[in-house]
Amino acid sequence: MKFNIITFGCKVNQYESNMMKETMLHHNFSYEENLSLCQIIIVNTCSVTNVADKKCLKMIRHIKREYKSAILVVVGCSTQNKQDLYESLDIDILLGNKDKSHIADLIEEYLKTHKKYTKFYNERNLEFEDMMITSFNHIRAFIKIEDGCDNFCSYCIIPYVRGSVRCKSFSKVIEEAKTLASNNHAEIVLTGIHTGRYNDSGHDLADLINELSKIDALKRIRISSIEITELGDKFMEVLKNNPKVCDHLHIPLQSGSNAILKKMNRKYDLDYFAKKIAEIRSIRPNISITTDIIVGHPYETEENFEECLDFAKKIKFSKIHVFPYSLREGTAAASMPNQVPENIKKMRVKRLIALSNELEKEYYDKFRGKKLDCLIEECDNGISFGHTSNYLYVSVDKTIEKGKITAIEL
Fold first, then answer.
1. Beta strands of 178-307 (E only): which ranges?
2. Which of 35, 51, 70, 247 has the fewest CB atoms within 10 Å, i.e. is most exposed?
């Protein structure tokens, strides 16, 4: 039987979908891009914003309307967040964020019984669900090393749908990385919901990176995202001494106003953030530092937003991922007064994106005319594309083997 997997959301979801695909293939199902030829359609959902929920629901309704004969399997954060709504949609197999590793078994059971299956767990009390992949659908392979979050930022639904922090065993991460590296994945991206909280049997993220760097076939180690509060002395030593760690860190700021950071229940202030960034740049002067910023959080005034713009200029991020605040029922911010009107949020998003574009160009221009090592990820019509260690996306008019790291002049 033929199947397809539609994925919404973050790198963790992409990894989990990759795992589900491998599991399905191992059970002798065949992957098919064309949905109209599929007997099974799996949707891996996202709930980070209201827009994410709406996109997922729109896709599911489309599938039910256009591909009525297909077995529909729906899993992930949006289902976990809106269980009652999804249960009303008459889905064949409906899961939250657990048992994705058993997806093929559940489908095989459904094929025998034709009984609809729905299962949800209390996500705050779960063990880490082991998932292993042998290859990835990109040259830069992701490894999910952690799940869950205990921060409970006021705007965020994710701790409620992903559960508490739990981690993959140290030895299994190393085993998985060795397999991926031997299968032409020269770069590994360590990912999780709260990646910097990785810990297994006394081994933290710094220990994991140092052990991974001993794998000869693995040339680069990238961290998908890390909180500023997790960049302690031990991590800084890794950044200083381990050349396999990529010259790029994604460090969420979320707001450039101390008043709003408090409302967000973030665990730092601007002075702490700025000093840490200065420390990082004293070790790696040309590092790319990207970030996330939410605009329009409850209580954010025009003055707060101007502070945010000024702070982003001061830090000189190489890119800012900008998000308008999205009210998530069940979070602390949802019940706060002083909600910012949508039209004001849109204006602030536009201004911050414009600043991001300026800062991105400014960072890129620093490297014009210089040669940087690029990991080739795609080749098309004699043009090769890929990312540098500092996450610049570059191309060269030459056919170069995928997976190879080569010097390219910008």
1. 187-191, 199-200, 203-204, 220-223, 248-250, 288-295
2. 51
